[in-house]
User: What shape does this take?
Amino acid sequence: MIAAFQPWFGDPDHIQIDYTSNDPAVIHKQIKQAKNMGIYAFAIDWYGTRHPFLDRSYALIQDASQDHFHVVLMYDETEEDDGHATEDALAAMDIAYRNISAPAQRHAMRI
Assistant: This one.
């Protein structure tokens, strides 16, 4: 089972609750709880470099995932209708490949 994970809690631009998605202790607790419920992976909303808080949350969750728990990137395209959505998405996917996917693949090969 894969669960959608929304990484925006604690972002000043989002509703404030009693925790932040950028807290490694919270992330470890949520991964542990997810695994106990039979969840195999989080699909995490990612907006590329448009939202640095969310980008940081994704990186922290990816770093915390181990012990057969996985994360997948779920790219959210821009809501702006400026005629550049495809170019923006391709640029974001290039960033994701260079900074997220490729380093993880290189790390996996070293193990």
Remarks:
- The mean pLDDT is 78.
- The CA atoms of residues 11 and 52 lie 10 Å apart.
- The chain has one domain: 2-110.
